[in-house]
TrEMBL record:
Domain SIS: 33-176
Family, per entry: Belongs to the SIS family. PHI subfamily.
Full protein name: 6-phospho 3-hexuloisomerase
InterPro entries on file: PHI/rmpB (IPR017552), SIS_dom (IPR001347), SIS_dom_sf (IPR046348)
Pfam families for the chain: SIS (PF01380)
CDD domains, alphabetized: SIS_PHI
Keyword terms: Isomerase
Keyword Ubl conjugation recorded: no
Key word Isomerase present: yes
Entry-linked Gene3D superfamilies: Glucose-6-phosphate isomerase like protein, domain 1
Coiled-coil boundaries: none
Amino acid sequence: MKTTANYFDHIVEELQQSSVAISDAGTHSGDLLAEKLSAAASVFVGGAGRSGLMGKAFAMRLMHMGVTSHVIGETVTPGIGQGDWLVLGSGSGETGSLVAMAQKARQAGAQVAVVTIKPESTLGQFADVTVVLPGATKEQHNGQRGSIQPMATLFEQSLLLFYDALVLKLMELKGQNSANMYGKHANLE
């Protein structure tokens, strides 16, 4: 029987293997996405389930950097338009509500970025920039997964780490550091 620490170590190994598999070329480049987002009027972030939670964490860090960011579905989220970017995290790239969001964003003149396992997916086809992360979708069975973790956990963890790496790249591009980001930190806690 494995201990919790053994499982933790295995998860870290899976994440290390994932980082090597991330494509960073052409329209699949995290650096390209960082450049695009650094020039965006506003960045709108969305995802469903746990992927959506990772997106919320990303939007929060963007706000800390002084980037105008919004989480799709919040009551204070304004309309999207020209000069804005929609960033969607979806393992399968087929989540119906996210596909509808991408279509609406395009119709409003916004650009779309997708972080997914499947660049050939419907969302991947809509995207101006598609970043491919390794992992299994929740629909894949154990023989196909490549992870001991349930459902889409490896993708969701990789998504959070990718978003954090993207924040570091944006900080570099914008000349930011952690010290000047505290000025935007919540102070009503």
